[in-house]
Amino acid sequence: MDKSKLLQLSPQALFRYQVVSAVQVRVLGGMKVAQAVRDVLELPHQDLSGRPRQVSERSIYRWLDAYGQKGLMGLEPQPRPRVCDSAVLSKRLLDYLRLENKTDPEASVPELMKRARRHGIVSEDEPLSRSTVWRACRRMDLVVRRAHKLKDKDMRRFSYPNRMLMMLADGKYFRAGVGRLKRVALNFVDDATRFGLAVFVGTSETTQLFLQGLHRTILKYGLLSAMFLDRGPGFISDDTFAVVARLGIRLIHGTAAYPEGHGKIERFNQTAWQQLIRTFDSNPEVDPDPSALTLRVSHWMHQIYNHTPHESLGGQTPANRFHQDPRPLHFPEDRDWLDDCFLISFERSVSTDNVISFDGVFFEVPRGYAGHRIRLWRHLLDDSVSMIHQGERLFVHPVDVKANAYSKRAREPKIPRKTTRAVRTAATLRFQSDFAPIVGPDGSYPKGIKDDKNNK
User: Fold this and answer.
1) How far is residue 247 from each of residues 200, 205, 234, measured CA to CA in Å?
2) Is the N end or the C end of the chain the one with fewer CB atoms within 10 Å?
3) What top-level class would CATH report for the domain 91-139?
């Protein structure tokens, strides 16, 4: 036997040698093997580090046999034979899992199971355990991703009993198309039923994108009681606060790093990412236009997600839970009132060239308001600006300096001059006093001058 191997005995082998030695000492003293094994079982056992250990009768017999055949090397723990397949899952399914994981390493176990059913590898009514598939993937050394969880955070959970009492909204950034253009999907989800209400894709998380989504959601599902948002740029603006206050919606802003109250919408974002959104990056089949992406994500939300059984709903689908909820939907009685809630008024001073400035943009107003301070309205749904002119609403537009350079100037209408009495200044009065006429107004000489001529 190689002496170098004896110097490399593991702690497990040394502990087993202690137990075997205790049995063999009793056998040398004339005790039978069975009695010696029973005596050793009653003794307290400790490993080399002093920690208590427990042994079984079967293990002692196995160690005695191994020591008798191979000596000390027989006491070394032998690695178990590696299992690379599954006795439960079919070989066809295992081959499919290997192929899909190689093609898409980011796919989760539930996503792989859905694909297998979609491709007919597993029938729709055949039971398939997620844990069984996960263990099979681990045996085959397949990389199975798991979502990272937030740790050491002040998390508090909440849940409302009925629909449209609390709505959750959040944006999920991603890349789309061959050019990997940056996009954001703004999702609206009902808290009680996990029902996906709406989704809108834009180039950035702006106030206008959020308010447009809120307006369309209210038109389709009615007014809501409260709303939970994070501190994204589109959620903390003054326009958002003003609109929500006019609608009578209670607004809750989550703290930084997403507390547990916002975990539902975060879990929804992870599901959307795993099942759809992550496939948009560098994909030549995906149109990066926001309207085209909105159509894709909306189809997934309303046709797949809302009709998939949800674990937190006891196996019900979000669509069934939402439509079976006894709380009625409350729609606005007046569409004009709803649209007016998305108007913001402000005042601006008009310059001498009939221009006002708003958000760094110059707007041209009709003539006649130069030097005055006027009130205007900003339409948050389309970001347009209007004013009341001659009793009617008039939309103003940014100044087109190029068109103004070539357009003809308006001319003032000619007003006939009025004949008025000439104004006599002090200089005119002094001149008339010093150079008075010799004859009077009637053409005759003044009385004093006439008498002087007669005397001469």
Assistant:
1) 21, 21, 17
2) C
3) mainly alpha
